[in-house]
């Protein structure tokens, strides 16, 4: 069974930065597209970024372009989401997934979800 564990969430002031980590066990991240999603209270879960298994294609939601950066470390079997210039509207539970939403990468399904990590942007 694929397992993903997110970490790195927390409370940060507007304009601050956080780096989220998504560590995989029982499978190799390089073999999957990896997506970062977020879900704010009362809202549906939406994708914010996707990196394809080849690493050759990266996509971002318009709302985070220029502020968020997705990257991977094969040696650590971990994908990161660097979040800069955070805004209150970035407050959400962030999830990583083995797979991306349709049209975001090459995957056709999401095979696993992490448990989520809460990011709160507030002064």
Q: Your description of this structure?
A:
- It is a single chain.
- With 123 residues, this protein is an all-beta fold.
- 0% of the residues lie in helices and 46% in strands.
- Strands 2, 4, 5, 6, 9, 10 and 11 form a 7-stranded mixed β-sheet that branches. A 4-stranded antiparallel β-sheet has the order 1-3-8-7, with no helix packed on it.
Give helix % range: under 10%
Radius of gyration: 13 Å
Beta strand count: 11
**Which outline best applies?**
globular
Individual helix count: 0
Residue-averaged pLDDT, rounded?
94
Instruction: List segments where confidence is low: pLDDT < 50 over at least 5 consecutive residues.
Output: none
How can the largest sheet be summarized? 7 strands, mixed
Class derived from helix and strand content: mainly beta
H-E string: EEEEEEEEEEE
Strand content: over 45%
What is the CA-CA span between the terminal residues?
A: 40 Å
Q: Key features?
A:
single chain; 123 residues; mainly beta; 7-stranded mixed sheet; 4-stranded antiparallel sheet; 0% helix; globular
Overview in brief:
The chain is mainly β and 123 residues long.
Topology diagram in text:
Layout: E1 3-7, E2 10-12, E3 18-25, E4 34-39, E5 46-51, E6 58-60, E7 68-73, E8 78-83, E9 92-98, E10 112-113, E11 117-121
Parallel strand pairs: 2-11
Antiparallel strand pairs: 1-3, 3-8, 4-5, 4-9, 5-6, 7-8, 9-10, 9-11
